[in-house]
Amino acid sequence: MGVSYVDREQADQETIAFYDRSEAQFEMLLNIFKVFGHAPPLGTVFTDLVMAILKDAELPWTTKELLIVKATHANQCQYCVVQHEAVSKRLGISEEKIADIGDDRYKTSPHFTDAERALLDLTVQIGIDANRVSDELWERLKSHYTEPQIVEAVFTITQYIAISKFGDALGVELEPVFSGMDPILHVSH
User: Fold this and answer.
1) What are 49-99's pLDDT values in tens digits?
2) Closest C-alpha among 119, 14, 25 to residue 70
3) What distance in Å separates the CA atoms of residue 152 and residue 53, rounded to the nearest whole number?
4) Alpha carbons 177 and 70: distance in angstroms, whole number
């Protein structure tokens, strides 16, 4: 139980504008966007934020998807995990690699580079305590990534921690198109 979704027929012009952008990006109007029909100015900001993250920039989109799946799985957001497993597969990330993101399997998985492992370790650490990123982890990060890339990684991680909490707090449910799907990664609730 959570807030209702604002369907297109009920939406004002500002809402329709960000619905159109999100639908063009994701090939459907996702429920996470429909809750923002209750707060159109925030929906516009949210759409801008998501669109800024979900593309190649300082980091490739595929790398950011690994961080998103790790962060949202660690935060027990099944909605986010299912959505981003689908995006990851569309971007060419293998099911085996997605499966190894769960728990600590990425640390020894042959599917990950040392650079990706450093970013996934950062994702875990931020979820536990962002104030305690070790010097050793900073050294590993800086040996593989530029400071602009690290900033983008941290922004992606922290925003998707927030997005997972936001969606879960409001009771956002998976769209019917995803019903019956067996996700690769599961959450424990």
Assistant:
1) 999 999 999 999 999 999 999 999 999 999 999 999 999 999 999 999 999
2) 119
3) 8
4) 23
CB 77 within 8 A of CB 61: no
Residue partners of 126: CB distance under 8 A and separation at least 6: 71, 133, 154, 157, 158, 161
Closest CA to 89 of 70, 65, 58, 114: 65
Enumerate residues 6+ apart whose C-beta is below 8 A from 14.
40, 41, 43, 44
Q: Hey, how many other C-beta atoms are within 10 angstroms of the C-beta on 170?
A: 18
Could you give the count of Cα atoms lying within 13 Å of 26 in the half-sphere of its Cβ? 22
Distance CA 177, CA 40 (A): 25
